[in-house]
Amino acid sequence: MTDDLLARHQAVLPSWVTTYYGNDAIELVSGSGRRVTDASGRTYLDFFGGVLTNMLGYDVAEVREAVERQLATGIVHSSTLYLIRQQVDLAEKIARVSGIPDARVFFTNSGTEANEAALLFATNHRRSNQILAIRNSYHGRTFAAMAVTGHRSWSASGLSPLQVSWLHSGDKLRGRMAGLSDGDHIDAAVEDLREVLATTTAGDVAALIAEPIQGVGGFVHAPDGLLGAFKKELDNHGILLIADEVQTGWGRTGEHFWGYQAHDVQPDLITFAKGIGNGFALAGVVGRADLVNAVPATSFSTFGGNPISTAAGNAVLDYVLDHDLQANARRTGEILLSGLREVAADSKILAEVRGRGLMIGLEFCRPGTTEPDTAATLAVFDECRKGGLLVGKGGLYGNVLRMGPPLTLTEDEAREGLAILVAAIRTAESHG
């Protein structure tokens, strides 16, 4: 049946909507907790969570029941022309946890739309279409979001409504910042920011958009404090900071609730998506009232913040806070990170283990070099599946395994997944 479904998929969907595992693509037909089952009956431990979206895992009673209660009212959609209690409740909670005084929340359907909205707010407020972005970043697939995506594999067009100037990424393996201490990295990055502002902009830049940890870019991240150091320079010019927390938010990094909190900074705007809906389409922007209100026309999102998605979102955020999933992410993430770093210490192909909490990247390179090894990456990726573990791929060169397990991951499941990962790396190494 899966083979027929793959052929049908290829016959009616665009060629660029690809699936993992090539001709062995799998259809997930059921899920519970942190495990999913495919159409052939094979069960897997899921360490990618629908690309970091199924933040609580699968078949979570609290979320299901909240959605069922809303469905039972008969109101699936009303539009924001009418009051939506679930939307207001969730906006209040997000404003409270954002750290932004007098915050306003605008709901959308996806992280891409959230970033588009944040760019709209910033450019309107500053009356400028100049944006600073980070190399190796990913912010979405629509026109403006694509323009600030510094990752060729995800840039389908060179056309842009924005004037974008690029800053260096936090890559520690290669590039200008490779090998620098954290302090030297921050100093060099701030000097680069000053140079960019002086040379490639007209001066009146609207905003810097940055992921605290780059998602699609392979979980690359700069030293703690860099965004704070950037903000001091940005404030000298009135430039806003947009934190793209689509993948880093809601406690995933373990040490902080938001990724930006590792940087001693308060963003002007925060975008969020993915995990807050636990699979339901839910995203948005939270920011200062004067910025979010900087829309000089009537506007709304037809489906953004609808009663069903916000019912789910309320249940998800309550669950995250009530069960202290941030602490669980730190605890179970440390099991994975410490175990994987032990492997990296004597591995010929595992060049770097990076990330925080349950946001972990493994970069594979040819022995003794920083040359990306996509073949080894694919071998480990396939071995994980054979061992019953689903992981993701990414990175600028396609040589990074990405993992974002549900934040409800247990310590036993972390050790189980770690054992599969270690075996997969050893197998790929021996066959290389």
UniProtKB/TrEMBL annotation:
<dbReference type="InterPro" id="IPR015422">
    <property type="entry name" value="PyrdxlP-dep_Trfase_small"/>
</dbReference>
<keyword id="KW-0032">Aminotransferase</keyword>
<dbReference type="InterPro" id="IPR015421">
    <property type="entry name" value="PyrdxlP-dep_Trfase_major"/>
</dbReference>
<keyword id="KW-0663">Pyridoxal phosphate</keyword>
<comment type="similarity">
    <text>Belongs to the class-III pyridoxal-phosphate-dependent aminotransferase family.</text>
</comment>
<dbReference type="GO" id="GO:0008483">
    <property type="term" value="F:transaminase activity"/>
</dbReference>
<comment type="subunit">
    <text>Homotetramer.</text>
</comment>
<dbReference type="InterPro" id="IPR005814">
    <property type="entry name" value="Aminotrans_3"/>
</dbReference>
<protein>
    <recommendedName>
        <fullName>alanine--glyoxylate transaminase</fullName>
        <ecNumber>2.6.1.44</ecNumber>
    </recommendedName>
</protein>
<dbReference type="InterPro" id="IPR015424">
    <property type="entry name" value="PyrdxlP-dep_Trfase"/>
</dbReference>
<dbReference type="Pfam" id="PF00202">
    <property type="entry name" value="Aminotran_3"/>
</dbReference>
<keyword id="KW-0808">Transferase</keyword>
